[in-house]
């Protein structure tokens, strides 16, 4: 199982759709994409994890890295997660208090100006 | 039920973490584990195997990491991940962890998802995890605070 990444602009926000499995083998690909996006000036990023089938702490570390990167440009990084098994990982690690997490991309877009 | 332990040796390469997850979760399903618990097991196995492979990549690239797993007699499913790395002393559960740290969450997840875990530091590292197979298993997935 591989990782798929696709991004699109929604006004000045960027939706990064992630699919598949995010683990130690695939996470570098996600890190690279986030680094590229920020380098290209995307500072309001919504990571859509609706199609993520697996996520572990390596993936969490990459998302934390992305959040730090956008915040250094006064930006935002929000997550879309509607699967309990994925959300649970954020809850156990206390990261629900760090990331804004939405049920849908539409909700995230409404909230992030 | 007799203890049926399987041993899996994996090359110290990150591409094999997915294979470890696959093999152990199939064994757990065959042992009758409920699907929700299989998801917990899958993450914990991924964390322990990732730590082991990362340790070998640094110090023992040509030595495989070892997973032993199977149902134990008491209605639980055990997984032990063994590596020959320098080992580590797992940080105690922290009430207020600095969120900007990008590592160290694996141990938190293993603790939150397994019913029991022992981190044994000897010559290398051994992470022994225990998961109740039945649905009545306590779901202790609350944050550390």
Describe this structure in words.
- The complex is a heterodimer of chains A (113) and B (145).
- Chain A has 113 residues and is of the alpha/beta class.
- Chain A has a single domain, classed as STAS domain (Transcription Regulator spoIIAA, 2-Layer Sandwich).
- Helices cover 39% and strands 33% of the residues of chain A.
- Chain A has 4 helices and 5 strands; from the N terminus they run ββαβαβαβα.
- Chain A has a 5-stranded mixed sheet.
- In chain A, helix 1 (27-39) runs parallel beside helix 2.
- The radius of gyration of chain A is 13 Å and the shape is globular.
- Helices cover 33% and strands 25% of the residues of chain B.
- With 145 residues, chain B is an alpha+beta fold.
- Chain B has helices spanning 17-30, 35-59, 105-113; strands at 6-10, 65-71, 76-83, 116-122, 124-132.
- The longest helix of chain B is centred in the first third of the chain and has 25 residues, at 35-59.
- In chain B, helix 1 packs antiparallel against helix 2 (35-59) and helix 2 packs antiparallel against helix 3 (105-113).
- Chain B has one domain (6-132): 2-Layer Sandwich (Heat Shock Protein 90), CATH 3.30.565.10.
- The interface between A and B is medium-sized, with 25 and 31 residues.
Q: How would you summarize the topology of this molecule?
A:
The complex is a heterodimer of chains A (113) and B (145).
Chain A: E1 3-10, E2 13-22, H1 27-39, E3 44-55, H2 57-71, E4 76-80, H3 84-92, E5 101-102, H4 105-111
Chain B: E1 6-10, H1 17-30, H2 35-59, E2 65-71, E3 76-83, H3 105-113, E4 116-122, E5 124-132
Antiparallel strand pairs in B: 1-2, 2-3, 3-5, 4-5
Helix pairs in contact in B: 1-2, 2-3
């Amino acid at each position: 199982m591989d990782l798929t990444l696709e991004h699109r602009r929604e006004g000045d926000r960027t939706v990064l759709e992630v699919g598949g499995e995010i683990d130690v083998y695939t996470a570098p690909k996600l890190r690279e994409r986030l680094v590229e996006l920020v380098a290209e000036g995307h500072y309001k990023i919504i990571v859509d994890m609706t199609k993520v089938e697996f996520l572990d702490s390596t993936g969490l570390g990459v998302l934390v890295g992305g959040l730090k990167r956008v915040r250094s440009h006064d930006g935002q990084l929000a997550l879309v997660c509607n699967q309990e098994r994925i959300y649970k990982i954020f809850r156990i690690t206390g990261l629900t208090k760090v990331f804004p997490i939405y049920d849908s991309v539409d909700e995230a877009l409404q909230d992030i100006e | 039920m007799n203890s049926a332990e399987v041993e899996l040796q994996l090359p110290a390469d990150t591409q094999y973490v997915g294979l470890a997850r696959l093999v152990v979760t199939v064994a757990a399903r065959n042992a009758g584990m409920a699907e929700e618990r299989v998801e917990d097991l899958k993450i914990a196995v991924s964390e322990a195997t990732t730590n082991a492979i990362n340790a070998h990549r640094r110090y023992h690239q040509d030595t495989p990491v070892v997973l032993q797993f199977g149902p134990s007699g008491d209605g639980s499913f055990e997984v032990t991940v063994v590596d020959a790395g320098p080992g580590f002393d797992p940080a105690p559960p922290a009430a207020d962890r600095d969120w900007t740290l990008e590592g160290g969450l694996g141990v938190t997840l293993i603790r939150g998802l397994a019913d029991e875990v022992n981190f044994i530091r000897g010559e290398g590292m051994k992470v022994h995890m225990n998961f109740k197979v039945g649905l009545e298993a306590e779901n202790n997935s609350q944050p550390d605070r």
